[in-house]
Design a protein that fits this description.
heterotrimer, A alpha/beta, B alpha/beta, C mainly beta, B: alpha/beta, 9-stranded mixed β-sheet, 24 strands, globular, C: mainly beta, 13-stranded mixed β-sheet, two-stranded parallel sheet, 21 strands, 33% strand
């Protein structure tokens, strides 16, 4: 990494902005603004800073509609919105996906539109921490805010997560290196354990690396639970870890004063899927019989937790909410985006602040290529290539204010620092416009003539 | 728009109206004495008319609710109903979604519901949810009982600073009053421990629950807030907690009241959970009589009950250590949520079964409290929603209170466990509530306790919050027709909120935005600034958010109702 | 007996939902009722007769007298027999999600493969699948800890992951193989697997029985070897042969039993007995 001289040429500083990258939602950033652009960011990690310092070559600036030749053509806002509204109004099984990189205020409009037309609303959790949410539904959710970790934790375990690369400021700001009220020496007062098949960068800064074999997580945590119950292990090596090491680790976990488990996609997407998290949560719950333990899923996008929270209070379900019958319902495997796409059920797909073209499995993207796709985003991406209507939004936390929820559920108001490009619109405005246009085009489907209470709830 | 509700049988305890046949008139959202001839007539001849209900203690919005909904999809699907042209699709039974919460309260004739626990750090979240709940006004009570700053002030007995802190935190969180949950216990839970009794200290803090509660009560009265301290004492749900409860209530005896709008200096919530005698569940029995005797003999205490309704529900409280104890009993999924330097929370699903001796005991203790406390102005109807049961069950509780026949039937038919005979006094009580008593415990008393001066009565100038039930009080015998009572109170003929007809003939016909109510203390600006300056070094070093991100901005409030209070110097 | 035959005219890419076409709903229906019925597809309803020719024969007094025959590819028809309490459904072709979910009585026969969640939260009745089924056969709803409480499921082919999740009663028989975590979280009931099992059956089980006649890939540490039993009687049913019996999942003080065919799984015995002399009888079986 070559030395870069500090930026000194700027007009003014906007303090205490919130980073719109990962689930850490660091709210202590200073933006250096010159001529209405952010030219430098203080306090942010490289990931956050590079996202905030907008790369204008890739910025979507003008609404576009794909013409008969299959080329995206620049059009005015009315044409683009009308086209998108027409697609949505004529749809039978629409999916509105994304939302994790936009604000709660925009989601409010989204849920109104989704409820009106009877769509599936889903977010990136369906391809990342969805298994964690399913496991939470089975096992529970012992969490704490990150300030608790900072001030109390003397043992931090990272399982299937590599925050040194994915959440660079997490260790410094919330969990490992920071000095807390009861952990005045910071890193020296904490034991850090990394559980990962790979020797990651986080493992390098840890006191202990538990390199269990791939897909061995369920067996490994099951063994720890058995040890916590006082059982002897019979196999010499469990999931690639010698039995003695498991005894030692379980003992260390029991003797911690306050422990926290952070887990990432390395745990959610192994063979046993949600069950790996399920048993990890149960292990944490067991540990609370001896001492205090909690956990936090390492959420990826800055508002992926926000969507789950928002949908839970609006509909009662955290993700994959299907409104097609006029009431909210959810079942993993039935109402999730990937299942609907690979089964070829979806007929109109709206992606708001996400990039399914880059992240989805092949089968799902193949179906996306066949159906109308509406993209609301700020950046060009693989999804743009399969989009039929492109609506350029604005950058939450930089060009537009909005609410987001940190990975531990703390709400943060992300303030506006600069003006958006003239031709772009706020995400919230775009979805509201779509809603109003759809309402004109199609009568609300699936409306009950009369309120009928659910007998199961009486 | 002018309206006249004609010929209803009106119960308005605040104005001493007990079942008179009279007209209720309202104009532009307020009750008035006279309307013009153009007024629209709503004929409610012989039907029961009351002010709209006020729920003094429920958990309907906030971070722990959302985790409850997130992790209990099996509860959410139980209440799923299809949207209509007026209302959105509903979901949930014990933890309904935000829209469902508003609609269901509205159908029961309720107009105001107090959200009883708001962690200041996540106040924005609570207010976002309040905005998502339609049709009811929601004041929220921020949590102070385990706040580190409060500990510091209490330890050094700095009541003036504490008062300034409270007044500033009410502004910051847009809160209404002071909520205390398991004082010192939730902090101890930060280390996986709890406090036992009223004089215990959490680790690393040289302060007892007694000191915290007394300091907060003194500061509360110094400010003269419309609501007194609202306390969930230590040792909730543990057999043998009666002494702790009584000590807690008695410790405030000498604090001088400083607010004309209310009578009490301490409000004890879900008292049923704090009225267990014995040493363990094996020999547990009811302590309701002893506690009721204490409340009857004093006038500084009010309470709400937290009546167990014998349903499958979800318990959620800021008393996190107690939830872990419950988890150890049931083994079902457990949620814990610790909030830095402020509070903690726990959630588990719970099945209250009439076949279970312990649940029957809890059910009976709740009813005993209602029936042993002589003055209905001192007791409010709650289920501590959703802890002891969902709020949709209020009508059933009303029917139990109004019908000794029904209670004896449940006891004699073996619908509830036989512990009710041996461990409680419930079978020996034949008191029955009348409609006036019901109107007090569900409307007038909560309004008085919260110091509301714009609702809870049909006084001219008050908000036109009115409920009309399909019950004819002069014709019905509640003791025998308990089923009709339950049905009648479940769905209103009219629910009127701020002069708008929200429910007509048991159906929601209109939806309005909810509003929050918050207390604005005036005259302490300098003291508040001094307190904030004093805690800023700690805040900057240890809180995981910036100060700028801590307060609830106006962005999160829709049309709030501000209650101004002049602090006495 | 009333026989209602649905002959498929065309398939739909978007799934049809049959939750309002249970025998309990349609036993009184005449031809005209079917003609007027709009079947939910996505956010809309379309005439059922666009998709099916309906033939009705005979009369029915109650749902129990109804026999529904579905001919065609039902791979995009969800909720067949969901919440039904009586009658019989014969599906000649593949079926989609939720076949027989929450059913309390009656019988369903599927002559084909079935998608996920077959027999979810079944409380009674009988469900037979001639082909394979995917994940969560006989499982519970998300977050629900009370899964299938009664009835019987027979899968003639293979079953997917987490078969019998949270099983709280009833019986699941799989004649083929089973993927990972069969009987996870189960509390009661019986799962019998005639084929092989990938790994980790009975994870975090509290109680109940799992019998595996085939070969087991990998066993969890939470299972403690009990004994080798001959011709055991499990859940009121007698089994022939020698079985290795484990108790688990010890991580939560579970008392469930896992029976593995001793001959197919004799390698499992090799892992034991080295530490302890109690297992002498096991050493004998090791060389079976």
């Amino acid at each position: 990494m070559a030395y870069e001289a500090p930026i000194t040429d700027y007009d003014h500083i906007v303090e205490n902005c919130t980073c719109a990258f990962c689930g850490c939602n660091c709210d202590d950033l200073d933006y250096l603004v010159k001529d209405g652009h952010v030219v430098a960011v203080r306090h942010a990690c490289r990931l956050g800073a590079s996202k905030i310092m907008e790369d204008l070559d890739q910025r979507l600036l003008v609404p576009m509609v794909r013409d008969d030749d299959g080329e995206l053509k620049e059009v005015d806002w009315d044409t683009a919105l009308d086209k998108a509204a027409e697609y949505i109004a004529n749809s039978i099984r629409p999916i509105f996906y994304g939302w994790s990189e936009t604000s709660i205020e925009c989601m409010k409009e989204g849920v109104a539109l989704g409820e009106y037309i009877g769509a599936v609303l889903d977010n990136q959790a369906t391809i990342c921490h969805g298994p964690s949410l399913l496991a939470v539904q089975n096992a529970g959710y012992p969490v704490q805010t990150l300030g608790e970790v900072q001030s109390r934790a003397d043992m931090c375990v990272f399982s299937g997560s590599n925050p040194m690369n994915s959440h660079p400021r997490h260790l410094a700001r919330y969990s490992v290196f920071c000095r807390g009220y009861f952990r005045t020496r910071g890193r020296f007062d904490r034991t850090v354990v990394t559980m990962d098949p790979k020797f990651t960068d986080t493992a390098k800064v840890s006191d202990l690396w538990v390199g269990f074999e791939q897909n061995g997580d369920y067996g490994f945590y099951n063994a720890i639970r058995a040890v916590l119950k006082g059982k002897e292990l019979y196999q010499d090596v469990i999931s690639g870890i010698p039995r003695e090491d498991i005894y030692e680790l379980a003992e260390a976990m029991k003797n911690a004063e306050f422990g926290t488990l952070f887990f990432g996609l390395g745990l959610t997407h192994t063979l046993s899927k949600q069950r790996s998290i399920d048993i990890a949560i149960k292990m944490i719950i067991d540990l609370n019989k001896f001492t205090k333990w909690g956990l936090t899923p390492m959420r990826g996008h800055f508002n992926v937790n926000g969507f789950n929270i928002f949908m839970a209070f609006e509909s009662g379900f955290p993700l994959g909410v299907d409104y097609c019958r006029g009431y909210p319902r959810f079942l993993s495997g039935e109402t999730n985006t990937i299942d609907l796409l690979t089964r070829g059920e979806c007929d109109v797909f709206m992606v708001v602040a996400a990039d399914p073209g880059a992240h989805y499995p092949n089968g799902a993207v193949q179906h996306l290529a066949k159906i109308p796709v509406i993209q609301v985003d700020i950046h060009w991406g693989p999804s743009t290539e399969i989009a039929d209507v492109v609506l350029p939004g604005s950058f939450i936390g930089v060009e537009c204010g909005g609410t987001s929820y940190r990975m531990d559920g703390v709400p943060i108001y992300m303030k506006k620092a600069i003006d958006k490009p003239e031709t772009c619109r706020d995400d919230e405005w775009i979805i509201r416009e779509l809603k109003e246009r759809v309402m004109k085009l199609r009568e609300e489907p699936n409306v009950a003539p009369k309120y009928v209470p659910n007998p199961a709830a009486l | 728009m002018e309206y006249i509700l004609k010929n209803g049988i009106v119960f308005d305890p605040t104005n001493n109206v007990k079942g008179e046949k009279k007209d209720v008139m309202f104009k532009d959202g307020k009750i008035v004495e006279q309307v013009s001839d153009d007024a629209k007539v709503l004929d409610v001849t012989d039907k029961l008319v009351m002010p709209a209900g006020i729920d003094p203690h429920a958990h309907i919005a906030g971070p722990k609710l959302v985790v409850g909904r997130m992790y209990r999809p099996e509860d959410s699907r139980r209440g799923a109903t299809q949207k209509t042209s007026v209302i959105r699709g509903e979901s949930g039974f014990s933890i309904p979604s935000c829209p469902a919460t508003g609609y269901r309260y509205s159908r029961m004739g309720y107009g105001t519901v107090v959200e009883a626990a708001m962690p200041p750090l996540e106040g924005k979240h609570t207010h976002e949810e309040i905005c998502a709940i339609p049709n009811i006004d929601v004041p929220a009570l921020p949590l102070f009982g385990n706040n580190w700053f409060v500990f510091e002030f209490a330890k050094e007995n700095k009541i003036d600073e504490l008062a300034a802190f409270i007044s500033s935190w009410l502004k910051i969180t847009k809160g209404y009053g002071v909520k205390i949950v398991n004082p010192c216990g939730s902090e101890a839970w930060g280390w996986g421990k709890n406090v036992h009794g009223f004089d215990d200290k959490p680790p690393y803090f040289d302060v007892t629950s007694r000191e915290v509660v007394k300091a907060l009560a003194k500061a509360n009265e110094k400010l003269g807030l419309p609501h007194s301290i609202h306390i969930h004492p230590n040792d909730l749900g543990h057999p043998g907690n009666v002494p702790t409860t009584l000590e807690t209530l008695d410790s405030i005896k000498d604090v001088k009241k400083n607010a004309g709008v209310r009578d009490q200096t301490i409000h004890c919530c879900h008292l049923q959970f704090h009225a267990y005698q014995g040493n363990s569940w094996k020999d547990a029995s009811s302590g309701a009589e002893e506690i009721a005797k204490y409340i009857n003999s004093t006038d500084h205490v009010t309470c709400d009950v937290g009546q167990v309704t014998l349903d499958e529900t979800t318990t959620m409280t800021a008393d996190a250590p107690m939830e872990y104890d419950l988890y150890k009993l049931s083994g079902l999924k457990w949620v814990n949520k610790d909030i830095e330097f402020e509070t903690a929370a726990g959630i588990i699903p719970v099945i209250y079964s009439a076949k279970s001796p312990v649940n029957t005991l809890q059910w009976a203790i709740g009813l005993e409290l209602f029936l042993h406390i002589d003055d209905p102005w001192k007791v409010c109807l709650t289920t501590d929603h959703p802890n002891a049961g969902p709020f949709q069950r209020y009508p059933r509780i009303m029917s139990w209170l109004m019908s000794n026949t029904r209670r004896m039937e449940m006891i004699e038919n073996g619908e509830v466990h036989k512990w009710v005979n041996s461990r409680t006094t419930l079978p020996t009580i034949d008191r029955e509530y009348d409609f006036n008593d019901i109107a007090i415990i569900s409307r007038a008393a909560p309004a008085k306790i919260y110091g509301f001066e714009d609702r809870g009565a049909l006084t001219p100038g008050y908000n036109a919050d009115i409920a009309v039930y399909d019950i004819k009080p002069n014709e019905i015998d509640p003791s025998k027709e308990y089923e009709a009572i339950e049905k009648g109170f479940s769905l209103t003929d009219y629910t009127i909120k701020d002069g708008k007809i929200l429910v007509k003939d048991k159906e929601i016909v209109q939806v309005k935005k909810s509003r929050t109510i918050w207390t604005n203390v005036m005259g302490l600006e300098k003291e508040e600034q001094a307190v904030i300056d004093g805690i800023m070094p700690f805040f900057n070093q240890y809180y995981s958010v910036k100060w700028e991100n801590y307060p609830v901005h106006d962005h999160y409030l829709s049309d709030p109702i501000r209650v101004d209070v002049q602090a006495s110097k | 007996m009333k026989t209602i035959t649905f002959n498929q005219k065309k398939t739909s890419a978007i799934a049809l939902e049959f939750d309002e076409l249970r025998p309990d709903d349609i036993y009184t229906w005449e031809k005209a009722d079917f003609d007027n019925y709009g079947v939910p597809i996505g956010n809309s309803r379309f005439p059922l007769t666009d998709y099916f020719d309906i033939e009705i024969e005979g009369e029915a007094e109650s749902p129990d007298d109804v026999k529904m025959i579905l001919n065609g590819d039902m791979g995009r028809v969800k909720y067949i027999g969901c919440k039904m309490s009586g009658g019989e459904i014969i599906c000649n072709g593949d079926a989609d999600i939720h076949v027989g979910a929450e059913m309390t009585g009656g019988k369903i026969f599927v002559n084909g493969n079935v998608e996920t969640f077959a027999g979810r939260e079944m409380a009674g009745g009988y469900l037979e699948i001639s082909g394979n089924t995917k994940e969560f056969c006989g499982a519970s709803y998300m977050g629900e800890w009370r899964g299938m409480t009664g009835g019987e499921i027979l899968v003639r082919g293979n079953a997917g992951k987490q078969c019998g999740e949270c099983l709280s009663g009833g019986k699941i028989t799989v004649l083929g193989n089973c993927d990972i975590l069969a009987g996870i979280h189960m509390a009661k009931g019986l799962i019998e697997i005639h084929g092989d099992v990938n790994r980790w059956p009975g994870g975090q089980m509290k109680n109940g029985n799992i019998v595996v006649h085939g070969k087991l890939g990998r066993l969890l540490e939470g299972f403690v070897l009990d004994e080798v039993v001959t011709n055991p009687e499990i859940d009121g049913k007698s089994f022939e042969g020698k079985f290795i019996k484990y108790t688990g999942d010890i991580g939560l003080n579970g008392k469930g039993s896992l029976y593995l065919d001793a001959i197919a799984n004799r390698d499992k015995l090799g892992e034991y007995g080295e530490h302890d002399d109690e297992y002498t009888s096991i050493r004998e079986y090791r060389n079976l």
